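Hi,

I'm pasting everything inline rather than attaching a file, because the server keeps stripping attachments. The sequence lines come first, and each chain or strand is labelled.
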Amino acid sequence: MEELDVEPTTTNIPASEGNHLGFVWGPGDILVYDTIYKSSGSVGTCSSFIHEVRKDEDIYSPILRKLFNESHHIFVGLQTIREDLPNKNKKTQETLGRYACLIWNLCEVLFIDAAPGGSLLLHLLDWVRLHKADVDEKAQEVLQSESPTEHHGYWDVVLSYLMQGRMDEARQMLVKWGVLKPAARSMYKQMDNLLSKMPVYNPGGSQTLTEFDVKWRHWHDMVDHSLQDNSFASDPNLELICKILMGDEDAILEQKDLLSTWYHFLVTRLLFSHPTVKPTELHYYAQSCLAMFDSRSAPEPLDSILLAAFEFDIHQVIKDCSIALNNWWFVAHLTDLLDHCNLLQSHNLHFGSNLREFLLLEYASGLFTHHSLWQLAVDYFDHCPEFGRVYLEQQIEHVPLDTERKALKVLRICEQRQMSEQVRSICKIMAKRALRNNRLGSALSWSIRAKDAAFATLISERFLQDYCARGTFSDLDLIDNLGPAMLLSDRLTFLGKYREFHKLYGENRFSDAATLLLSLMTAQIAPRSFWMTLLTDALPLLEQKEVRLPPKVNERNTWEPEMSSLYNLHQKKVLSTINWLVNVDV
Amino acid sequence: MEGTNAKYVSQKISKTRWRPVSSSSLQQPDVFATGSWDNEENKISLWSIGEEISGMEAEFEGDPQLLCECKHGGDVLDLNFLDQERIVTASSTGAVSIYHLHPNSQTLSVSQCWTRAHHYPCDDAPCTGVVCKSPEIVTVGEDGRINLFRADKQAVIRTIDNADSSTIHAVTFLRTAEILTVNSIGQIKTWDFRQQSNTPAQILSQAGDRVPLHCVARHPNQQHIVATGGQDGMLCIWDARQGKAPASLMEAHTAEMWEVHFHPTNPDHLFTCSEDGSLLHWEMTSGSETASFLQGGRNNSVLSRSAVAPAGGGQSLSAWLSGDSSKGRLETTHMLPSQTLSVNSLDVLGQCLVCGTDGEAIFVNRQVPV
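And the predicted assembly:
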C-alpha cells in the first residue's frame, strides 16, 4: 500500500453516535447510512436517513459553470487545431480562484513559453505584476492627495514599483519629491541617473546575454560606488533604495509587507542580483527565498506546488494540484495542454492509460454526475482513446430521461457513436413509458427508431386487443398512415392490412376486400387468436353477390371459371379456405 | 460571422425570443427573453442588448445584460411573448404559465398558471409547444392533447383530448381559428376550432419514411406555405392547400432541426437551427447571373429537389414551393463562428438574431443581412 501524501479530511455525518456506518460508492459521491450495530459490539437503534456525501461542490457554482463551458469549447478546439494555443489569461483570472490562476500562469511561463535565461526574468516579472495589481490603486490614491510626498504611502509606492522592476513609474513618482526639495537636488539627480541607467534585457535585440551581463555588472558597480561613498547617507529613504538596487537581501526582506509573498521576494531578489538567471538555476533561489521569507510557518500546499514548478517537476505539480484543488478541472486541462506541447513523458500508469487520459476521465466522470453539465463530459470522453468509450457507455444510461426532448438528445449522442445497445435500451424505456400512458403512436415511433420489431409486435397486439374489445379501432390516424413502418414487424403489417380491409369494405369494394382477407388468411401473418375474428369478417362477404375472386389462388383451391353462380364460387372459395385454416399445421 | 460573440450564462438555453417592438416604430429590438432547461432550478430571464453603437467595430458590441429573472417550475419547453409585457411558457411539468413584466420595478412574476394543462391519467405530461395570438393561447403536449386558453380566463376554452396518438411537438396558427400541428410520426394536421368535431380537418405526411417532425413555421404573408423540420434535419416546404407530400425537400442539417423561422418582414429569408450545433440562414435570391454572396461565414449554395410542380403565384412563393433552380437560387450561410453544442432555439426580428445553445451560451447578431 502506498503512503498517504496528506492526511485525509474528515467529514462528520449527522448519524447516531457510536454506530457503525454503511456506505456505497456512487459515480461522484458516497451514500452513507446508519446501522444498528454499535462499535462496542452491541445492537441498538438507528436513524432511517441516507446521507449523500459529495466532494466536489465546485461544479454547482454558477460562476465556475461559465468556465467549464468555455474551457470545453476551447478543449474541443484544441484537440483539432494543433499549432494554435489559446490564451486564457483574461478569462481565468476572472473566474478561477486566485491561487489556481497564479499556478496556471506560472506553468505557462515556465513550461509552455519556456523562456531561456534573460527573458525568463522578464516573464517572471510580468507574472508577479499580474498577480499584484494593487500597486496602481495605491499610486492613484497617493497622487490624488493634496500633497503626494507627504502621504504616508508615498515611499511604499516608490518601493513597490521598484521591486516590481517598473523603473519608469518609480522615477515618475520620485520626481515629485525631487521637485520639492531643491536642497537635495543633486542627490535626487544622482538617484534618477542610477534608475534610468539600469539595463533591461531586450530579447529581440541584437545584444547577446553575455554583453548584457557585462553592462549590468558595470551598472551594479556604479550603484555600489554610490553606496560606498555615502552619496545618499543624509536621506534614509534614498539610502534604502540604493541598497535594494544593490540586491541587499536584508533590505529587501525588510519590505516584507510590501512584498507579501515569498515568490515576489524571489523575483525581486533575482532582478537585483541575478537578472540573467537560467531556468535550471531557479529552484536553488526558490528554496532559499522561501526559507528566508518565512522561516517559522510550515509550507502550505500552494508553496510546494510553486516550488515543484520552479523545479520543473511537472508530475509533482500535477500531483500536488490534484490533492490541493477540489475539482479535477485544473489538472485535467493543464495536463491536456502540456500533453499537446509534448512536455509530458508518456508515463503509463498501472491500469494502462496515460496520465492525461486518467485525469480527463476523472474530470469528465465528475461532470457526468451534474444534472446539466453531462453534455460537456461526452466530448471529453471522445478524446480519451483507450477508456473513453467504455466510460461513456456506462455513464450515459444513468442520465434521467424526464422529457422526450432530453431522450432525443441522449439518443443522438449514442447514435453518433454507434452505441447500438444503449440506443435500444433508451428507446425501449421510452416506448414502455408511452405504452403505459396509452400513447400508442409515441410507443410506435420509439420502436421504429430502435428498429425494435418485438416491441412493434407488442404495440400491434394492443391495437388488436382494443379492436376485439370495442369493435372499432382507436388511433386511426396512426394505423391509416403507417407507411413503410408497417414492414417493421409481421404483426404490424397485419394490422395495417387488416385496417385496409375494413376501409375497402366500408367503401363497398367487396371484391378487393375479399381478396385482401384471403391473402391475410393464407399469408400466415394473422395471429391465431385473431382467426375467429377473420372468419367472422368473412361471413358478410358470403352474402355479397358482386364479389369476384381471382381465377386461381393456389393449388389447394381449384377454380372452375365456367360455374354459373358467382354465389357458389364465392361460397366454395371461402369454405375451402376455412378448411385449410382448420387443417393447416402451424 | 463577426459581431457574434458568445455570452456564457451558466444555464442551458432551451428557448429564446425577442420582445416584440411596436409596429409603428422602426426600432430594432433590444430586449429578449430566455428559458432554461435541465437545471435543478430553471429560470425565465430577460436580457437587454442596449442601444446600437454605430461606428464601433463589430467585435465590441455590448454584451447582453440581465434585466431580471424568475424561477420556473420544470424545463422551459416553449416560450412566446403574448404582448409587450407578458410571456407565456410551456413546462415539462405540463403547466402553462403567464409571466408578467412589471415596467416600474423591472421584475418578472407569475400572473396566471394552468397547472395540469397536459397530463396522463396518473402522471404529468410535458407541454411541448405554445403559441399565442392575444388573447388566445393554444398549447400542445406529449399527451397528444390540444388546449385553447384565453389569457385572464382560468377555465380552459376548449380541449381536444387524444388529438394525436403520438407526441405533438409544435403548433402554429394557420389562419384565425385554424392551427397546424406536427407530431412524432411525421404528420402535419390542421385543426379548425370553429368545427365541433375533434378530428383534424386535414392530415399531410411524407410519402416515404415518416420522420418525426419537431418544428413548424408559417410564411408570414402566404398562409398556405408552411416549413417543417424534423429528426433527419431536412427542411420541408409544404403547400397546405393541396397535396399529400411536401412541395420541396432540402438537406439542411445532420441532426434534429429544432426551430425554423421565416423572417417576419422579409420572408425570402429563412433561419433554421439544429442539434448538430449549426444555425443556417437561407436566402432565396432572384435568379440572376451574379450570385449575391453573404458576408463572412461559410457559404454553400444548395439547389433543392422539388417533389411537386409549383403552385404558381408571386416570385418568392413559387420559389419556396418549387425550389426550382430556374426560378431562384437558394443560398445558405452558417451564422455561428464555429461548431458548438446543440443550438436549441433562435429568433429573428428586424436585423437582429438571437440564439441559445446547450453550451450555456447566447449569441446575438445585430447585423443580419436581410
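The mean pLDDT of chain B is 83.

If the labels don't parse on your end, tell me and I'll reformat.
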